[in-house]
């Protein structure tokens, strides 16, 4: 598998969004909801008819995947910082090996896969496959892109870390001793508020079984994302007032 290009890494948020949009667009060719289809299939195995309680259980489990995704990503971001989440380039200046990074090298991308599984139940059967497979493939390409940069920057330290900690499927126990890092939970929630509201949309649907409530809450997640993104960019600019000047210089250099 090829590593993601610079363009893909820089625009990863929009590409992931396109994967979600394609998955939900697939309702135009497959009208059966994946969660409903799964619930009814399980009911047939029991020799009964699916009830609202059965549907709620299916979507409650789906929402649990989304909540776990938000929690794991928040935990990981608390050991980084929200600025890393919106960076257009691979960040290789330091190696983080604390918190969730003691269990898995890419907890944020693992969270993305959990989110895709949860939201796959809201798509059609075809859309569910598109969402999960598409997310898995793109995440693996992003990981290969980041690993190449970290290996070049951190050398033997990163290779030793890779040998100890699994890439994407978390170990049940920490594979490294704690580095005594202190998580910044404010930063963690700032960077992942968007994910929490997305998870809330699934929780709301599991309770109500009403699509309009799901889409209203889901729409609110984009408002939250825009607000948090503005805060992160403003804070980054305050920390580095010359950021725009450096960006202009970098852009000019790339044209030479």
Question: Can you describe this structure?
Answer:
The chain has eleven helices and no strands. With 256 residues, it is mainly alpha-helical. It is 71% helix and 0% strand. The C terminus is likely disordered. The longest helix is centred in the middle third of the chain and has 30 residues.
Structure characteristics:
single chain, 256 residues, globular, disordered C terminus
Strand content: under 5%
Average pLDDT reading: 87
Helix-strand topology string = HHHHHHHHHHH
Number of helices: 11
Structural class: mainly alpha
Q: Can you tell me the residue ranges where pLDDT is under 50 for at least 5 consecutive residues?
A: 243-256
Rounded to the nearest angstrom, the distance between the terminal CA atoms is: 32 Å
Main sheet specs: none
Estimate percent helicity: over 70%
Radius of gyration: 20 Å
Number of distinct beta strands: 0
Global geometry = globular
Would you kindly provide a brief summary of this structure?
This protein has 256 residues and is mostly helical.
């Amino acid at each position: 598998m090829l590593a993601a290009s610079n363009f893909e890494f820089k625009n990863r948020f929009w590409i992931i969004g396109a994967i979600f949009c394609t998955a939900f667009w697939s309702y135009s060719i497959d009208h059966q909801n994946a969660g409903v289809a799964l619930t009814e299939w399980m009911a047939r195995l029991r020799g009964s008819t699916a009830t609202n309680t059965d549907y709620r259980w299916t979507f409650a489990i789906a929402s649990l995947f989304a909540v776990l995704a938000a929690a794991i990503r928040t935990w990981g971001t608390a050991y980084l910082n929200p600025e890393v989440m919106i960076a257009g380039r691979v960040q290789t200046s330091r190696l983080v090996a604390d918190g969730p990074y003691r269990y898995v090298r890419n907890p944020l991308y693992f969270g993305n896969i959990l989110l895709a599984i949860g939201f796959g139940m809201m798509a059609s059967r075809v859309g569910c496959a598109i969402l999960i497979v598409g997310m898995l493939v793109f995440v693996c390409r992003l990981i290969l892109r980041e690993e190449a940069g970290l290996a070049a920057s951190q050398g033997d330290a990163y290779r030793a870390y890779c040998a100890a900690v699994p890439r994407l499927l978390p170990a049940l126990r920490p594979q490294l001793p704690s580095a005594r890092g202190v998580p910044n939970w404010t930063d963690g929630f700032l960077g992942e508020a968007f994910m929490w509201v997305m998870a809330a949309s699934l929780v709301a649907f599991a309770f109500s079984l009403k699509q309009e409530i799901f889409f209203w809450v889901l729409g609110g997640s984009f408002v939250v994302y825009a607000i948090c993104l503005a805060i992160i960019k403003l804070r980054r600019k305050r920390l580095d007032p010359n950021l725009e000047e450096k960006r202009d210089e970098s852009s000019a250099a790339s044209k030479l």
